Amino acid sequence: MLFDTSFRSDLARNFGISLVVLATIVLTYALIRTLSLAAGGRVDPADVLLALAFAGLTQLPVVLALALFIAVVSSVGRLYKDSEMAVWLACGLPLRRFLAPVLRMAWPVLLGLAALQLWVSPWTQRETVQMRERYEKRSDLSRVAPGQFQSSRDGSKVFFIERDTDTPGVGRNVFILTQKPGQESVTTAQHGRIEWDGADRYLLLEAGQRSETDQTEQRFAQARFQSYRVIADRQVTRSLDELPPKAMGTLELWRSPDPRHRGQLVWRVGMVLGALNLAVLGLGLAATNPRRPNNWGLLAALLVFIIYFQLINLTEGWVARERMRPAEALLAVHGSVAALALGLLMLRDEALRLFAWLPRRAVA
C-alpha cells in the first residue's frame, strides 16, 4: 500500500539520520572520557580503541531507543506540518492506523536493542572491568604516567616518576609524598620499580633518602637508603562473584535472589519495554498545528524521553532497596506509560468528533 511504503521509508530515513548524529555525539564523548582515563593512568593507552568500542556498545541501546523515538516524532510531525496528515485523515485513516507501519519498521530495531541490552552490554561491562584490573595489576611502571603527579586511591600518597630509562620496568627520579594525621614524609630515589605482594602493590626504591616530619612533637628525621620498599596502593582482588551487577550476565541475574541483581534485571528489561512504549507514544506527541510550525513538539518529546528514562533508572533503585517487587516496578512505570500512549492515540483520533459540535452549538 502506498501509505505503508511511503511512511515506513520516511521513518527509516529519519531513523538513519538520527542514529548517525547520536552515535557521533556519544562516541565523541566516550573518546574524550577514555583519553582522560588513559592520561590519568587508569586505562592502558594501547587499549584506548578497545575501551572506546566497549563504551560505544554499552551506550548503543539508549542511542537506538532515542533514535527510534526521534524518527517517529519527526516523521509524524512532518506530516502535520506539510498538511499530509489532513489528507490521510480525510481518506479515513485514523492516527492509530499509523501504529502498524511504525511497529513493522521498529521490530528489527527493538530486537537488536534487546540483544544488546540483555547480552552484549553485560559482556562489554565485564570485559571493561577485567581490562582495567589487568592494567592495575601490571608489575612495571607502564601504567604510571611519566612526569605527572598521581595520588593513591586513599589519597594519602602522591607519586612522581620519570620513566625514561634503558631498563624496561624501571623508573628514575622517584618522588613520594606521604601524609598522615600529624605526620608528613618525603621520599626520593634515583630508581624505582613496581612489585606485587599478594593483593598489594609496592614500589621498590634504590639509592635515595627519606625525610619525616612529626608536626605534633615538632621532630624531624632524615635517613639514606640503598633499598627501600613502600606500599603504593592496596588492591582488592575481584572474583567473578564480586562483579558489579551491570557486568553480570542476564541469566545470572535471573537466578540470583539478591535485590541488587533483581534491580539490574528490571532495568535491562525496562530499557526494551521503554523503547517500545516510546515508539507508540511518539505518534501521539507528534501532533502539531500546520499553521504555526515550530519545534516545541520535538522539545516536549525529548523532555518526555528524559523523564521516562529517569523513571526507568529509579525502578532499579526501588527494587534494589526492596521497596517494590520487580513485577510491580515494571507494571507501575511501563504499564502506565503504555496506557498513556494508547490513551493519547485514542484522544487524538476522537478529538474532532468530541469537539466538532462545540462551534455549531455556539452559533445556535
Q: How large a portion of the residues is in β-strands, by DSSP E? A: 15-25%
Helix content: 55-70%
Largest sheet: 6 strands, antiparallel
Our count of domains comes out at 2
Tell how many strands the DSSP assignment holds. 6
Decide which structural class fits the backbone. alpha+beta
Rg: 29 Å
**Spatial sequence of strands, sheet with the most strands:** 1-2-3-4-5-6
General description of the model:
It is a single chain. This protein is of the alpha+beta class. The chain has 2 domains: 257 residues, no CATH class; 85 residues, no CATH class. It contains 9 helices and 6 strands, in the order H-H-H-H-E-E-E-E-E-E-H-H-H-H-H. Strands 1-2-3-4-5-6 form a 6-stranded antiparallel sheet, with no helix packed on it. The protein is elongated.
Question: Which terms summarize this structure?
Answer:
single chain; 364 residues; alpha+beta; 2 domains; 6-stranded antiparallel sheet; 9 helices; 6 strands; 18% strand; disordered C terminus
List the helices and strands and how they pair.
Elements: H1 2-39, H2 48-81, H3 84-90, H4 99-136, E1 150-151, E2 157-162, E3 171-180, E4 183-197, E5 200-214, E6 219-234, H5 250-255, H6 259-285, H7 296-320, H8 326-355, H9 357-363
Antiparallel strand pairs: 1-2, 2-3, 3-4, 4-5, 5-6
